[in-house]
Specification:
Six copies of one chain form a homohexamer. By secondary structure, chain A is of the alpha+beta class. Chain A folds into three domains: about 100 residues, Beta Barrel (OB fold (Dihydrolipoamide Acetyltransferase, E2P)); about 180 residues, Orthogonal Bundle (Hypothetical protein af1432), CATH 1.10.3210; about 30 residues, no CATH class. Chain A is about 40% helix and about 20% strand. Chain A is built from ten helices and eight strands. In chain A, the strands form two sheets. Chain A has a five-stranded mixed beta barrel with strand order 1-2-3-6-5. In chain A, strands 7-8 form a two-stranded antiparallel sheet. In chain A, a hairpin with a 2-residue loop joins strand 5 and strand 6. In chain A, helix 3 packs across helix 4. Chains in contact: A-B, A-C, A-E, A-F, B-C, B-D, B-F, C-D, C-E, D-E, D-F, E-F. Chains A and F meet through helix 3, helix 5, helix 9 and helix 10 of A and helix 3, helix 5, helix 9 and helix 10 of F. Chains A, B, C, D, E, F: This is HD family phosphohydrolase. Chains A, B, C, D, E, F: It holds the Pfam family HD. Chains A, B, C, D, E, F: Keywords: Hydrolase.
Chain lengths: ~325, ~325, ~325, ~325, ~325, ~325
């Protein structure tokens, strides 16, 4: 079913056959008293409301039809009040295995994951400080589960880099800028900065859920990614015999303070140059990504993007490029 | 030297002989080019400037004369510009051992520490939840070092309960109110609340320094007590086989959120009734202590206390007690 | 008509006959130029849109059909766009007298009013300070109208304890906690605290309207409950010969400052321990009620409540109860 | 003693004989163990430290020598560390009666009080609304005590119009602008505006103490002037049979909301045009007075005033006046 | 077509023939795959959705049918879901010239523009300071384009005086109050105040677009009206030989600071009495206009206006006028 | 007089002969009625109080002895209350010309000005966009006065880069980081960014006074550097025939928004990626400089700097450098 149409391309009357992700699923009672199934089905290109009016047409376990499940569906595109929807004839639960490549169902980073992992490994290899090198290696190489999650998680639920691989993409971009900054400002400890950058959002792999839809985990809501990653770092450092306490404090300080202000969820303010730098470059990278995306997106047309809730302003899309020549 | 005069009692001309705590110490050069020693010497009753004009009168290592050291001094009280100061004839460093009972040098809790520890143990014994009981016991009984620090630390550097034993006094007071609240509101998990109360400030044992003067440790400034105690709790829970993850999250949540608002240093808001309760009772207890102290203190006289920086207001000291009788 | 179906139980096709409360009522002109009546009808279980397409079917005075009136209606349940509504055949205004027990139409406190009034009287009887006792008695016993309103009013329009009797329920709950606090902290004047608690929201009886729907009165919007109750207290005190001015100031201070911060509508900050305590216990009680309600409510399912506008966060619903046993 | 020198005119060596106001007074113990009296003595032109080294030279009751008392003193001007001070030979308490005209001791309004009272009476006479006229007359004419206080009180402890008569001066200035505004904007009820203006700060007569020094009374600190005047207005309205409730609400609303924002101590926001106007004109008048004063004052010289804490900025003193002529 | 019905008067079934303003215009694809035109058509009385189902019925250039264009339309009023809409039979672009008087399409100031311009000229003629007079004359008289725009622009996109001529109406109203204030407060430079008032919002002529609908221009969004008018003033002053730098600074200061606070977009705080006055009177005038409008408007009925987003509160509509007489 | 001792090196009894800068100067009257001169004299290493007790010893015009003047002085170092001061025998005004190299009197940038100007010229030469190139060249090359001021001004009065040449040093540092960022993020217009960086603080050359002491000019206080440089840019662009309006808007937007938030004095928020970048890099560079300086400075000793008012926190001075090796 590699040639399944993407949702954005569907037109009224089209037949639909294949796998879709159920973002929402609810059994409801119609005014006439009969039970029906209402779904929101999605792939990476968009989503549609879908209805199965006769629940007896469900194959297999009805309970398996729930939010965040993949479904195999058969039906056709209809129009209601000017909006397209799916009228389903058959629905059944689909195991992950038969669905194949997940990337069809989620927004993904523009950069291929293997390429990004290679860049990550290059950064790890460049670390000269033995303690920092060991700590990062324990977390990003030896811990295969964390490495896999780090390569897959988005950077946020909304705001910026909201796509699979987004966390890694954002982290590497900040790391790139940090490399430049360490060259530019002579007084920074480059390896310490790099540790701060690579670790500053690593807790998002557990704060966010992103297997099927992007949201917060219970632990994410209760603790937040900063507290999570602080714990992971301390635990990892604790397993390295002789790990210097001073270094543990400085790395934790960068991570704890990287939101820059208490009201943004950092329990302490940045008090070292390295912590200050990581905060600024992280914040800048996220906000620039929102701006670049707003400039590429053409929703609504015109020189101004729709109001961005992430930045609380509209973005000016018109880009200046030199024209003509100065008269003399 | 049990009959050494307290600093508050000294008058001009008195001889001074005995141990005092150096809160500040600096070697300076006089306008005439000779080196002298300027000190701020304290006991629990107050402090005085002190000068040793001839540094050759120092016995032993000059470098040992530094802030937060105990000193043995000999000298007399003089007056300069209407203020008393000490003119020293001899000074030497004094080891802790010879100084004896530290409580002469620091403000101490009004409640005896042994009595408070007994109350703490009673609370620990009352816990019915096996996991919570084990966790608290591991931290407050089995870890003798933490137990000792918990009995000695102040609750804050300034603000409230600024005395040795103040942390324990404050914690027990909050626990007492929490017991009442759990009886009053039926829907609270009492053992969970108790865990939150006992652990909410335990990181202050490491955030604050209080052996000689009250201040912040480096780690305290870089991480804050909330991040510290969160780590300790996770580590302790990690050492208890089978410790329920759900419980770990709920306890950590109380601790992380107990400042109540992000701008006060909590990375998450209280999202459970237990967390909300601990936040309110903690805040209330600290602020009430400030008010009671302001009412007892009679500085400046009158119905109003001096401006309290902790509460950003003056406190009304006049207490209402019923007088006379209603006419009918 | 005691067996009238509650609105939540209605299904398409059901006949409806009986009394309902009009929360909204408007005469409108259809696109075809004919006049019809559009209503929002409610009982304690919920509400429904209702339409009378032929206004000639109204019995009696058309003008009496307005918001906050009880109506006698006859009609049937229909469905439009998947939502139930009422198609009415007959409507007439209904006097309060024929409607009978109002509690069928409004959310009511879980605690019976007589039981709560008894608890209130017990508190009044426990006051030892003769002036405070007389003041409270004049307001809550001698003033029958205020007593009745105090027993009926909700504690708020939204936020917390939004039900008939809610103000009394909330007040008694705060009083219960205050009793514990006065026992716990030795330095509080218990009768003064009690006066503050019982009076802190009494102005809500006039700030809110709650005979038919919950809203603000004109006076409530223009003055707020704090200014209202301050006036009532001063007037009541003024009628007691010899009432001590110092006591009047201290009670008024508690009431005026009980929102705790200027930006929350208190013109002064709490400057006595009694005022501080009343503020904290009031705030805590209201917020805990919101949390308990959010935990009981199962809207949307899952571990998290919908976003609470009162608390500006989601509430975690999962409650911890001990399981298993610690391995040794 | 009408020709007593003002403090600002004193030079070293001058003899001093006459009445001065003690702003501060304290008995202290010198380093040599003898008791002496330290005073801060003031008249309207300034203040000086003063010392009586031999307390046996006090005539009459030593206890009567306290802050805010008038004293009769005899001594001479000396200089210490470049500052003038008084060395006293004799001191005794002086009753108000013998002191004569108080205005020698306090800053006073630039406008004579009788002239201002006449203007006030003219405004009262211009009121057409019978209820408003009666209310204002009851408060500002019939209540002789309030009228006297209203003519004497300052408008604030610091900030603006800090002088005897300042409250009346400020009130009349706002009233003058309000008259203009009512003429300019057609939709305002002029008598209602006038009532709001005249009453908006009347509680300051009891919030502030100003017999000897400017400060807050206990009641002022506990209730604030807004709550006080609201009570007075309600009480006065309650004594006028048939006083319209709607009018009482609208006047109280202006008074309660006149600080314009909750965080500035108003429990409600201005919700009528009259309330909005009174807020703006009150605020403007106070701030302009600060600016005009800063421009007249030449402290420090230069184009900029010292930092004004009332306005949180420096004021530009240079005033533009047209020069030269435009070339054509 | 002078007798064209206004949109507010249309009823179902009415024929429509004439010019309307397209506030929105979009070509869309129906579910059946055919292209149609969806419009929002407006005149000064209101707006309606309109549909042309067969785009072949468009006369002339389809591309000319766009937002902010005038259109000639022919069609009839239909009803859909209880709302009126237009079903169009023919549509074509209409040049401004054939449309005639624009005031039929936009809300306009209640005051006639010629009358307002006359008042403006009177103010200009009254200026005594030669430099200020010349500057204002260069901008408001000599610059015909600016004068025309100043007479046509609204004062804001939303908030207050949102109508053609609104900027001039608001400016003159502030100027009127400013005249009173300069008479009332003796220390103000009247001509400087007047310059500040007339210039304080003149940049809105370029910040806002108001030829067809009210919005922000690109430059308005990028620079804001304050920066724009500051530039214009500097440029105009620069063209007057010998224009005093001190005066330029003082005028610019008023303009730059007139929003009163940094967070409202003024880069500096008002530091002169003239700047403070202009800020307060400007703010007051705008807010009063919102209140008066809310009182006149009867939307929703009752004593309270709907929630005003401009003022973040509801407005009390009931106006007090004296009734009855005081009993004696 | 190239071998004049610096102020920091002076000891009691030293003779002083040479030029010093008068930061403060005042003629005062001693308690004995004679006139004396009190000065604060400074060079780059520090400052001292100085007194000339006999004003007849002044050579030349007494009026020329004023703040911010260079003085030639002769006297000796004395000690008063433990502080050194100068007792002067002779004083006269000194013209700039005879003083020679100013850098002896002010803190100066660590980078030589010629080197920095060369770097600036290199950046200018690298601009490809003809309009931007011309604009920058007109301002930084053709306008010799501005170029000279740009090379001399500090970057701030306090906060960061407070030294002669500091503005240029800061600007070049931001430019360096901006070059890296433009390489890193592909979507930025490098020449536009560079223009924004070079121009973002150029108004400080006129906002600050720095010939003698660092402060604000009148224009600086009244307008702020943002409004000043916006005007200069517009004027310069206006003189280049055909300068594109779109480019002018985009450059002005960067400059106007570069403080990032309205409450920090930017009248608009950054709405383009280029504006966002300039804001972040400017802010980061200033704050890093403060941190690096705090780490280099050893005032007070210890791991923590004194409280930095610029950053509202203490800075951690201990720098991590790898030690030892990881055990395997």
């Amino acid at each position: 079913m590699s040639d399944q149409q993407s949702i954005r391309q569907l037109k009224e009357g089209d037949a639909v056959l294949g796998f879709l992700l159920a973002q929402e699923a609810a059994y409801k009672i119609s005014a006439k008293g009969s039970e029906y199934l209402e779904l929101k089905l999605a792939d990476a290109s968009g989503d549609l409301k879908a209805f199965l009016w006769d629940v007896r047409a469900i194959e297999g376990d009805m309970e398996a039809i729930r939010a965040d499940a993949f479904l195999w569906v058969k039906g056709s595109v209809t129009s209601y009040n000017g909006r397209l929807q799916l009228k389903l004839d058959k629905v059944r639960f689909a195991a992950d295995a038969e669905v194949g490549d997940f990337s069809r169902f989620f927004p993904v980073s523009a950069r291929p994951v293997p390429e990004m992992l290679e860049e990550l490994d290059g950064l790890l290899a460049s670390v000269k400080d033995p303690w920092i090198g060991r700590l990062l290696s324990d977390l990003f190489v030896a811990d295969a589960e964390l490495r896999a999650a780090f390569a897959q998680a988005p950077a946020a639920k909304s705001m910026h880099h909201v796509c699979l691989g987004g966390l890694l993409e954002h982290t590497l971009s900040v790391a790139g800028m940090a490399e430049h900054a360490c060259g530019h400002y002579g007084n920074l400890n480059r390896d310490l900065v790099l540790a701060g950058v690579l670790l500053h959002d690593v807790g998002k792999t557990a704060e966010l859920s992103y297997q099927r839809s992007f949201g917060y985990t219970d632990a994410g809501n209760l603790l937040g990614h900063i507290a999570m990653e602080a714990e992971w770092i301390s635990r990892a450092a604790g397993r390295i015999p002789g790990f210097p306490e001073e270094l543990r404090l400085q790395i934790l300080h960068i991570v704890l303070s990287h939101h820059g202000r208490l009201e943004f969820g950092s329990p302490v303010l940045p008090k070292t140059p390295e912590a200050l730098l990581v905060h600024y470059l992280d914040d800048l990278d996220g906000k620039l990504e929102v701006m670049f995306r707003a400039q590429r997106d053409e929703t609504g047309g015109g020189a101004w993007s729709p109001f961005s809730r992430a930045l609380e302003r509209m973005i000016y899309r018109r880009r200046w490029s030199a024209v003509g020549d100065v008269e003399n």
